[in-house]
Write a structure and sequence with these properties.
heterodimer; A: 384 residues; alpha/beta; Alpha-Beta Plaits; 2 domains; 3-stranded mixed beta sheet; two-stranded parallel ribbon; B: 414 residues; mainly alpha; Formate dehydrogenase/DMSO reductase fold
Amino acid sequence: MGDKKKWFQLDLGLGQKQAVAGSCGCGKPSGGCGSHATEPPKNDLTISAEEFDAAVEQELMEDSMVAQTRKDGFQQVFDRKMDRRTAFRKLTASLLVGAGAVHTSCSVTSGEEAKEKAQIDWEEQFKGNYKLMTQEEKQATVDRLVRSYQLRKKENIKMSAADASKDVLFGYAFNISKCQGYMDCVSACVKENNQDRNSQMQYIRIHEMKDGEGFKFNEADDNYYHEVPAEGHFYMGTQCFHCDNPPCVNVCPVQATWREEDGLVVVDYDWCIGCRYCMAACPYDGRRFNWSKPEVPEDEINKNQHYLGNRLRKKGVMEKCTFCVQRSRAGKDPACVEACPTGARIFGNLLDPNSTIRWVLENKQVFRLKEDLGTEPKFWYFMD
Amino acid sequence: MGTFRAFRHMVKDSLDYITHGSKTYHIWMIFLTVIMLIGMYCYSIQLDEGLSVTGMTDRVSWGLYISNFTFLVGVAAAAVMLVMPTYVLKDIDFKQAVLIGEGLAVAALVMCLAFVVADMGGPSVLWHMIPGIGVFNFPNSMLAWDVIVLNGYLFINITIPLYILFRHYQGKEAKSKVYIPGSIISVLWAVAIHLVTAFLYEGLQARPFWNNALLGPRFLASAFAAGPALIILVLAAIRKFSEFKIEDKTISKIAMIVTVAAQINLIMLISELFKEFYAPTHHSESAYYLFFGLEGKTALLPWIWTAIPLNVLATVLLTFHKLRNNTKVLYFCCFILFVAIWIEKGFGLIVPGFIPGPYGKIAEYTPTWIEIWVTLGIWAMGAFVFTMLAKTSIGIELGKLRYKKKKILKSETV
């Protein structure tokens, strides 16, 4: 598998088709509902997804007046098998979802669950920007997403809406002398953060550089497939540096990405319009785009999620490293730090004078990449 | 009440007028429709599968769509440079050209917006960008500025000609008090849209190829060359296919604008090349890639080495009065200049901005057929919109479309 394969072969038409066909019949990968949370979920277990969808569809078809319209909007979102629709229908999908939702909500013939799903979808489609939500609204959308997932996949996920804690500013240090290029961090990251497996999306890149030539990124290999550590080479990892003055945040036309109080630069996947301006603005190659619908095998989904972190994404939105917000805000290290077998990765609270990261910054000769751009990354490199 | 009725009649009459025409007209419109339909089909595939059906990747994340968008903003901006002399400086020669120019601006803007929408990952949530309903990152994001200026410009360019045509349709003179302030605003606004679009790229410290103070001025210069060049070609076509009279004087004046702009553009190009290649730094890599290729990756070479000679040739030919005044040479120059600037300001500008990547990775970009057809579809849509607008305005100006068949005004019989 050469260089080319990985970066040019984004012609995923074929791979994606197969993946779509083999996936379960749910449009939204993550979900939940606030308003009906008290409803007993026991029905979920007695009826299979296919049976349920068939029943819903039949019921819909019986209703003659708006059946056609509603079928479009409704199934666009609920049934992934129905993805292959015409462009004209797709274009109006969001409006039609709304129309379908209203109709279903008002209909006496539809099942309770169908109504609930429609309700959730309606609220999700027209919810606001997470950054500007109150704590209640944040919790409500998280509950909706959890409930939606439960309704569609018959499984429970845990999703957090935890805000930044006071007096916390996350920072990261990377020990160039220790890294041996095993890339355990990369696979741990992919697993932890539910990244798309089809396009082999990776937040972390490990650059293999030649000893004695300094940091020559342009000559480094960031996509190697040989035994490591390779003779005469050293390794350097890059990812999102969570700049204190992030250029990506400034350029976003809809404020779908921002810097949190604890220094994490995050994305609201539901608010992102997919213009990729942030990607052009990032000097560190820190952002990744979902060029097609991200696929994670059902049994590999990490169900411990955060709204701003590793919850399942949709196609056409930006994502990036969040320092594993679902872990770091729960007091744990990011997955890459935990997975590193050499201890090259150090993570901690920059405001805590007793933290390891502070010790590194105070006792090692640290440096950052492209400091001349004034981005103030919170990601330092050092050597033993 | 009467105004509304007249307006309703105008809409009805225009619809009637644009659906009737010569055989050539119908063939042209059918041809455009077919291209548009193919484009729509390809766009439906893109909506279905995601942007992975395009050639864009995480390494080169903007491609053909944004390139065409950038170029067309220039065309839109330039069209209005004809407005100034006509309405404000009372230069009668331009009068016939100006409605065509504004029609062209509208068509170019429609194409711009279509290209932006085609490039979006989530077109269904575009309402997030609508001020008031969504969240607008104003004034921080240049894209937010761009949305405002482009839509504002579209509004101005629809209302001014609409007002003038509507007055003429009713057999009245358009009041200069009403449209002259509008024209002045539109001229200033034209500069603004292009400068803001340049700032979109210029403001990115991550991309040294774009982060360059000359980008804005060079955008303007190339736009005022390519835009009027297109107008000359369009006027030539209109002269051929309709009874609308366009004097040679008008065309030669527009040709003068094209020439000066092309010369300034060439000077700026030389300045840019000097800076990149006299003392090359790490930041010149993108220019190296564009002109000479890097590490054997040479996808853009044929394009840029087509664009530069065409650009130079057109500018040199236009500089000589004798050659410029020969319509055949003029049309040829306008055509090659247009093509050259489309390459240079389109993907010759956008794609090298991403190559090499932030860490020096060289990954090339090749558009897929789906992308190309969507692009062609949008161009066809622009041509379609323009044809309809031009036909209506010519009809009204020639007095073929009249409310209650009033007498044709003297000033319009020219």
